Amino acid sequence: MLTQAPKGTKDILPSEVYKWQYIEKIIAELCRNYGYKEIRLPVFEHTELFQRGVGDTTDIVQKEMYTFTDKGGRSITLRPEGTAGVVRSYIEHGMASLPQPIKLYYNITAYRYEKMQKGRYREFHQFGVEAFGSEGPGIDIEIISMLIMLFDRLGVKDIALNINSIGCPECRSKYNEALKEYLKDRLENLCETCKTRFERNPLRIIDCKEEKCKTHTVSAPALIEHLCEGCEQHFEGMKAGLDNLGIAYNVDKNIVRGLDYYTKTVFEFVSKNIGSQGTVCGGGRYDGLIEACGGKATSGIGFAIGIERLLLVMEAQGISIPETQGIDIFVATIGDKAEKYAEKLVYQLRGNGINAEKDLMKRSLKAQMKYADKLGAVYSVVLGDDEVDNNKAVLKNMTNREQREVSLDSIIEELKK
Ligand code: HAM
Fold it and tell me: Taking Cα atoms as reference points, which of 39, 305, 314 lies closest to residue 147?
């Protein structure tokens, strides 16, 4: 126990962190290009926010949240996703009074007590965006195009965009009647959780992960066939906008998404490369969420992409990620005098923005040079008493093995070149 990370969590070791840093850099550039500003939020929130936001008939709230009572007696939950927290922050900080739309992005860890499998963890990472205040389909098109561009910049191919509309509360109430009519004779065959969903939120039954519920809902009526005129127009407008940008999509009437806040547009990006957990990204519109959380009625839309799943797709497609460079120079030493000199030299080199290392393990010269190679040093220099006394040393290029004499005073300038 003591020496094993909890089930469903993973360490990101120094040997692989460069992949994460690479993706985060591309995300930051993309968000700058699209005018989305970063927001950083607490890892935990009041439990009620997720009950109200994500929805208390969802799998996430009913089965998967890490909830505890803190020492002050408050019910606290580790965020299972990012949207609810961003909405809370939008309301708390009065962002509605700023010029709209408000466009935000985040890179977060999220927590869900789920059955572990490839691509499904209990702590995972999401890059997400949320945009508030714009009602028309233009913003739907913008955020979907952002994902297309992200995949393009990362070199990810063959990732299908599936879209659907699940309408507004008006379409939903009419649809619920049709769905309940269909489900009522099948109710006995559904799981216990779905039986309780029948009256409160029958749409959730369509999204249940239990096999027996899945089989009994395959031919259930689809929400997209019950859209009101406004929702229909919104959906048509979005499809026309995607066509205009040359973005290919499939309309998948089975997408309902696992969170309650969605209205109108919902979408997912799915890869066939990574097994059953192929949904790399999910998102959609949530025009009623801000009001439900205590703000004034404002529309919203966003998505979140799972970084672990994105990395699995990149790996499956053989996409190589450039590794962070090794160090610029290794300063090897022989003897105490050179050691003292090297301590100061390395300090000065680092102060000048040069990535410098020296031995800290009392290695022999041969072992120091081997270590320099392992660190991927571009240059090395060997200092002994003579070098320090004469203020001269041999600078060696570790890749092409070229050597030249340099004065120790000018080594910083030489390396900066
Ligand atoms: P979600 O579909 O629950 O949506 O999650 C989005 C993505 O997070 C998934 O497509 C998947 O890549 C990743 N993900 C979810 N659960 C896990 C898990 N247990 N292990 C690994 N990866 C996982 C949301 O979270 C919404 N907040 C998205 C959104 C933002 N909608 C509007 N704005």
Answer: 305
* pTM of the shown model: 0.94
Q: What is the pLDDT of residue 208?
A: 86
256: nearest Cα among 185, 208, 291? 208
Which amino acid, residue 279?
A: T
**How many A from CA of 305 to the centre of ligand 1?**
6
165 and 266 Cβ atoms separated by less than 8 Å: yes
Task: Note the pLDDT of residue 362.
Answer: 96
pLDDT recorded at residue 185: 92
Check if the beta carbon of residue 254 is closer than 8 Å to that of residue 198: no
User: Which residue among 279, 287, 310 has the greatest number of ligand 1 atoms within 8 angstroms of its CB, and so is best to mutate?
Assistant: 279
pLDDT at position 156 is: 98
CA distance 375 to 398: 11
Instruction: Name every residue whose Cβ is closer than 8 Å to that of residue 370 and which is 6 or more positions away in sequence.
Output: none
| Neighbouring-strand partners of residue 305 | 127, 281
β-pairing verdict for 392-397 and 403-407: antiparallel
In short, whether 262's Cβ falls inside 6 Å of ligand 1 is no
Atom of ligand 1 at shortest range from CA of 82: 27
Tokens found for residue 40: 């950083």
Question: CA 84 to CA 135: how far, in whole Å?
Answer: 19
Neighbours of 233 (CB within 10 A): 13
**Terminal alpha carbon distance of the chain:** 51
Whole-number Å distance between alpha carbons of 98 and 26: 28
CA 8: distance to chain centroid? 17
Reference 134, options 226, 248, 241, 280; nearest CA is 241
Query: Which amino acid residue places its CA nearest to atom 21 of ligand 1?
Result: 120
Q: Average pLDDT by consecutive 10-residue portion of the chain (417 residues)?
A: 94 96 98 98 98 92 96 98 98 98 98 95 98 98 98 97 96 92 92 91 87 90 94 98 98 91 97 93 98 97 98 97 90 97 96 96 97 95 96 93 92 87
- Cβ of 267 less than 6 Å from ligand 1: no
Residue 136 and residue 142 in contact, taking contact as beta carbons nearer than 8 Å: no
Asked if 55 and 84 count as a contact pair (C-beta separation under 8 A), the reply is no
pLDDT of residue 218: 87
